[in-house]
Specification:
single chain, alpha+beta, Diaminopimelate Epimerase, Chain A, domain 1, 2 domains, 18-stranded mixed β-sheet
Length: about 290
């Protein structure tokens, strides 16, 4: 099976062109094996690039490193669009990619015949508590008290990072919780992340983001992704951070988010209510998987 390794600001996946390759019989099992950073190719998961059954240019199916299938990946969909363009599946400055979130429109920036950056219309954020989903009461979850995380085995971490014990929840087709603090570098993400991911108030688990605000237009964030753990970037998460900042009054509707793997430009448009994400997409190498 031929594969291609790609990443969006360090959020790396193994991609398989199912226009040419047969659909894997067990994509969840393949995702676990091929994502292993010691015994496989290594990555945050597996993404299948398939023909669309809804009239789009291609369909993206995404599997986390633990084998669970997810609805969306913002960095992943940019890479899918790059692959579709660069490898000649469809040559167009604008592509439509089918995802678990629906069909997304992606505007491409190409240099020398290859896509370097892409602007994705990520759609409208889902803000109703039950649809995110959470079991919390109320129409929206904005600055809601945070589930208890003081039992994390790291002494004085809450005070050290200046944790704001409130969270705002947003779905971008997949669920996110956004938590603010004064110093994201001091959050013990490897301990806090899995506790919050599986908190009882999140029936389908959740992606967790800690955010440090530098100005109304600039933030730094760190991410624990549902099913993958700590990642260098999360595109849908950055979109959720943009929305959460505007909802809670901490930031404007247009921001730059600094992630460990690089930067993303985000805008929650007032005119149409859509969230737009712009960032790079990079192909690393291709190879042959023996299965």
């Amino acid at each position: 099976m031929r594969f291609t390794k790609m990443h969006g600001i360090g959020n790396d996946y193994v991609y398989v062109n199912c226009f040419d390759e047969p659909l894997p019989k067990d994509p969840a099992g393949l995702a676990r094996r091929i994502s292993d950073r010691h015994f496989g190719v290594g990555g945050d998961g597996l993404i299948l690039i398939c023909p669309s059954d809804q009239g789009a240019d291609a369909r993206m199916r995404m599997f986390n490193a633990d084998g669970s299938e997810a609805e969306m990946c913002g960095n992943g969909v940019r890479c899918v669009a790059k692959y579709v363009y660069d490898h000649g599946i469809k040559r167009s400055d604008t592509l439509r990619i089918q995802t678990g979130r629906g069909i997304l429109t992606i505007a491409l920036e190409a240099r020398g015949g290859k896509v370097s950056r892409a602007r994705v219309n990520m759609g409208e954020p889902i803000l109703e508590a039950a649809k995110i989903p959470t079991t919390l009461s109320g129409e929206r979850v904005v600055d809601h008290p945070l589930p208890a995380v003081e039992d994390v085995p790291v002494r004085n971490w809450v005070g050290a990072c200046g944790l704001d014990r409130k969270m705002t929840c947003v779905s971008m087709g997949n669920p996110h919780t956004v938590i603010y603090c004064q110093d994201v570098a001091k959050v013990p993400l490897e301990f806090v992340g899995p506790i919050l991911e599986r908190a009882a108030v999140f029936p389908k688990r959740i992606n967790v983001h800690f955010v440090q605000v530098h100005s109304p237009e600039e933030v730094t964030m760190r991410t624990w992704e549902r099913g993958s753990g700590i990642t260098l970037a999360c595109g849908t998460g950055a979109c959720a951070v943009c929305v959460a900042g505007a909802l809670s009054g901490r930031t404007h509707r247009r921001i730059t988010a600094h992630l460990p793997g690089g930067d993303l430009d985000l805008e929650w448009s007032e005119s149409d209510g859509q969230v737009y994400m712009t960032g790079p997409a990079t192909e690393v190498f291709s190879g042959e998987w023996p299965d």
